[in-house]
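Invent a record, attention on tokens:
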Amino acid sequence: MGNEFVTCSFLLLLFLTLDPGVSSNVLRLPSMDLVEQKEDDGHSSSHFHMETVSLANYDPTFTVMKVIQVGKTIPVSFPYIKDLSPYQFLPREKTHHIPFSSKAIPELHRYFPVFPGSKQATAIEQTLKFCERDPPAGEATACLTSFESLTDYARGIIGSDSDIRIVRSSLISSSTPTLQNYTIMESKEILTGKVIPCHAEPYPYAVYYCHFQVNTDNKLFMVSLRGENGDWVDAVFLCHMDSSPWSVESKALIRLGLKPGESEVCHFFPAYDLVVVPQ
């Protein structure tokens, strides 16, 4: 196995097992809590009655579309990522021979230098079991391990002859606080039709959980944010426009104080997640 494979493995696993060190009372990004995300959609409350919201009393993970107004200031937590190399797909030929199944966990120890019972081993097992679960009603889901598989999956939804493009949030600099107030400077809707969100999963190489909600409208935006320290972030902002199929027990709706179908639910994307859209 090549050194680049092992390096990628450890960088990804170390990042995903580190405590993000950010309290829950800020606008968190869904993939900051990768394990919790597998249990629920992870939405949380937000009430926007002021032009500027303080860091002390603001408690959303997910929010609503009206908060994205030019001039509004909101606290957001963007994780610092030195580079996206650990989140880039490896070529299919480097991973196709490695079993991707919870039944093959003992065999996987031959490929990955992790100790049974360690956080890394637990992350591998949880990701495999998550990827093997039945998809939610009305969704087409897949865990993808190569750019080729991502392309095949996306074209199966968007159209077999369609070109695709990947949209990501920009990286923050090492000098940017992971949590600070951001002022919304510009918001542009990306008019695409079908939208496929993909979330990085904890695994020794890049694995993305992609999901497409059938017969559901989404709106996708690129939002330019200026932090208190002067740094800028161009952030992907996705709104699920129809929450009517969601469970009344969804944490998103409970924390937002909403019932299914009462409102859209939106969230920012960290740089290690991505959205696939038609070219």
User: Anything to note?
Assistant: The chain has one domain: 3-278. The mean pLDDT is 80. The chain has seven helices and ten strands. Residues 151 and 211 are 13 Å apart (CA to CA).
